[in-house]
Design brief:
The chain is of the alpha/beta class and about 200 residues long. It is built from six helices and seven strands. Helix 1 (about 25-40) links the parallel strand 2 and strand 3. Helix 1 packs across helix 6 (about 185-204) and helix 3 (about 65-75) crosses helix 4. The longest helix has 19 residues, at about 185-204. The chain is globular and about 40 Å long.
């Protein structure tokens, strides 16, 4: 099943995949979809097979292997209309899957929300090989404090010029700032959506 949030006068469509621990109905996924929709992007959400089972059974399940995740994303993209420029992307794990698939699909580019550059506490286990090579444009929207890849760490990764990194001030893995920053989540979410729409507009 695929969920569509449709804009009034859309400029493009985005297939948005969820992260490892929460599916397409999570608050974050709903808030991002609504924010992009308000700014003129149709957003299509879906659950990977393991998340479909988890929701049916009412208990958590580990993610599927990368091949199965990629296959599910390709199947979901086939349900996204081709009347507008199409992009793929996702939250954390979903963004990683999209970034590894984008070059082989009929899409204009990829958007990653909180890219999992490495597991928290394991900065040596990097997942960046494909981000250091040529390919389609990618936007990574990353909280400055994201434990999967902090701003100061990313600066040393030598990512390919096709990869843009947009920072979210004081944000964590889901863009939530500390109270001491003077910001609130809604501010950071709006900033993230604006950055995503600017990227889409430049590459559609």
């Amino acid at each position: 099943m695929i969920l569509a949030d449709t804009a009034h006068q859309p400029i493009a469509s985005l297939l948005l995949a969820h992260g490892a621990g929460a599916g397409m109905h999570s608050d974050f996924m709903q808030q991002v979809a609504a924010g992009l929709c308000e700014l003129g992007v149709n957003v299509y959400r879906f659950n990977f097979p393991y998340m479909q089972l988890a929701e049916q059974q009412g208990k958590k399940r580990p993610p599927d292997g990368m091949a199965k995740l990629q296959s599910a994303m390709q199947d979901a993209l086939a349900q996204v209309p081709v009347n507008l420029p199409r992009f793929i992307g996702g939250k954390s794990m979903g963004g990683r899957v999209a970034s590894m698939l984008a070059d082989s699909l009929e899409v204009q580019g990829c958007l990653c929300l909180g890219y999992p550059f490495h597991p928290p506490g394991k900065p040596e286990k990097l997942r960046i090989d494909h981000l250091q090579k040529p390919g389609k444009p990618i936007l990574i929207v990353q909280g400055q404090r994201d434990p999967f890849g902090r701003e100061e760490e990313i600066a040393g990764y030598s990512l390919h010029s096709r990869v843009q990194v947009a920072k979210i001030t004081d944000g964590d893995h889901s863009f939530v700032p500390r109270k001491s920053s003077g910001l609130v989540f809604e501010d950071n979410l709006h900033t993230a959506c604006q950055q995503m729409v600017a990227f889409i507009g430049a590459n559609k």
